[in-house]
Automatic annotation (TrEMBL):
Species, as recorded: Lentilactobacillus diolivorans
Lineage: Bacteria, Bacillati, Bacillota, Bacilli, Lactobacillales
Protein name: Glutamate dehydrogenase
Pfam families: ELFV_dehydrog, ELFV_dehydrog_N
Subunit comment: Homohexamer.
Record's keyword terms, sorted: Oxidoreductase
SMART domains linked: ELFV_dehydrog (SM00839)
Length: 433
């Protein structure tokens, strides 16, 4: 806190994790002796760089780029790139820190990292995005590699951006398809990567709901966001027999009591790159409202925030409880602020934290790395089945830690502990202390 008093998001993420590690530290004095936590919260490396680019009207612009390589105790650095005007070093560090434990929870050999830029892709032409990505990669390429650091997508970075980034990397270093994940299917991408985070969220949620002796069938779900995670969460929730009644973007939300059709969201957001408002123009039963979906008062059973960090505050968490939601699982990273999480607990809402619930994306990214190493492509079904097993395993590990440390259904602390134990053992064994 003394070192980075202005890094609010990073501190929020760190304190939430450190609080929950207390019972583990009591049982492992060797972690304290090795000052392991001080190492864990300090990135191995944080790179900041200039990204100059030219817009179509001939003007020159300069953005900031970052890559924070947080922890490589259990494998090469792995984590997405975010393009959004709200990106700062604090945001990248919070995401990179979360990524360490999330990646550990998947059971796959990947370390934690994150990167991005304060560039806003919204409203930019394809050629502007391409020139930005080429400039970004001109610097990033010297810090990454298939066995060193493997970036992927996040907010504002989907197939189009990964394609441009990959092309720029290839031009400088030759073809190395394991250097990025989330690639197109024609050049080393994995089937089911696009769907992975949303599908994985529902596999995790299904396991969590089942563990309470309940089922997803017939549940009414509020989803926020209308991007990659939200779209495929809506698809899988619908396939599992639930009904999603909302989705949103940063301007407003759509309410459709007859159930959101993910194909229309996909058409508007992925194909036309439009705004979610247009959903209500196409579907008679839908209404569009400006503002946050978390201020919208309607009865439902389960909340899946899939937009961005700190989208739910204490007051909105109170409304979630009042509206009757029994479960909340996070598709976005850190969408609930600490007071919101305390409110869920106070009201008996069973909470699935981001680092467990949304780990499906990075898990399938790691499977993409495996396929690239083998020079083989697995079928959609093979990848999807592995994703399903990984998400159930993540829930089981979190539940086991919850039981072992008598946390009273605190799956957040359970996930932190389960993710931390593996990283801590690896750090100690490697003598990084
Ligand atoms: P996208 O860029 O595809 O979509 C983001 C969505 O959230 C858009 O609908 C966007 O609306 C909305 N949004 C962004 N900022 C805000 C805001 N301040 N208020 C309200 N809505 C907002 O990103 P993803 O779906 O990939 O990512 C969503 C979340 O999931 C992020 O937290 C990300 O870190 C996390 N995540 C993503 C993974 C992945 O595989 N993609 C993996 C694990 C986590 P608008 O268009 O108006 O900006």
């Amino acid at each position: 806190q003394r070192r980075d008093p202005d890094q609010v998001e990073f501190q929020e993420a760190v304190f939430t994790v450190l609080d929950s590690l207390e019972p583990v530290l009591e049982q492992h004095p060797e972690y304290i002796k090795a000052n392991l936590l001080a190492q864990l919260v300090e990135p191995e490396r944080a790179i900041q760089f200039r990204v100059p680019w030219q817009s179509d009207d001939g003007q020159f612009h300069v953005n900031r780029g970052w890559r924070v390589q947080f922890n490589s105790a259990i494998g090469p650095y792995k984590g997405g790139l975010r393009l959004h005007p709200s990106v700062t070093l604090s945001v990248v560090k919070f995401l990179g820190f979360e990524q360490i434990l999330k990646n550990s929870l998947t059971g796959l050999p990947i370390g934690g990292a994150k990167g991005g830029s304060d560039f806003d892709p919204k409203g930019k032409s394809d050629s502007e995005v391409m020139r930005f990505c080429q400039s970004f990669m001109t610097e990033l390429q010297r810090h990454i590699g298939p066995d060193l650091d493997v970036p992927a997508g996040d907010i504002g970075v989907s197939g189009r951006e990964i394609g441009y980034l990959f092309g720029a990397y290839k031009r400088l270093n030759g073809y190395q398809n394991g250097v990025l994940t989330g690639k197109g299917l024609t050049f080393g991408g994995s089937l089911a990567r696009t769907e992975a985070t949303g599908f994985g969220l529902l596999y995790y949620t299904n396991a969590l709901v089942k563990a309470q002796g309940d089922t997803l069938t017939g549940k009414k779900i509020k989803v926020s966001g209308a991007g990659n995670v939200a779209t495929y969460a809506i698809q899988k929730a619908t396939e599992l027999g639930a009904k999603v009644i909302t989705c949103s973007d940063s301007d407003g939300y759509v309410y459709d009591p007859s159930g959101i059709n993910y194909k229309i969201v996909q058409q508007i957001k992925e194909v036309e790159r439009g705004r979610i408002k247009e959903y209500a123009d196409r579907v008679a039963t839908a209404q569009y409202h400006e503002g946050s979906v978390w201020d919208f008062d309607v009865d439902y059973d389960l909340a899946l925030p899939c937009a961005t960090q700190n989208e739910i505050n204490q007051q909105q968490a109170g409304l979630i409880a009042k509206d009757g939601a029994k479960y909340l699982c996070e598709g976005a990273n850190m969408p609930s602020d600490p007071q919101a999480i305390a409110t869920y607990r106070k009201n008996g809402i069973v909470f699935g934290p981001a680092k467990a619930a949304n780990a499906g994306g990075v898990a399938v990214s790691a499977l993409e790395m495996s396929q690239n190493s083998e020079r083989l492509s697995w079928s959609f079904e093979t990848v999807d089945n592995r994703l399903h097993d990984i998400m159930e395993d993540i829930f089981e590990k979190s539940e086991a830690a919850d039981k072992k440390y008598h946390l009273d259904k605190n799956y957040q602390a359970g996930a932190n502990i389960a993710g931390f134990e593996k990283v801590a053992e690896a750090m100690l064994a490697q003598g990084l202390v």
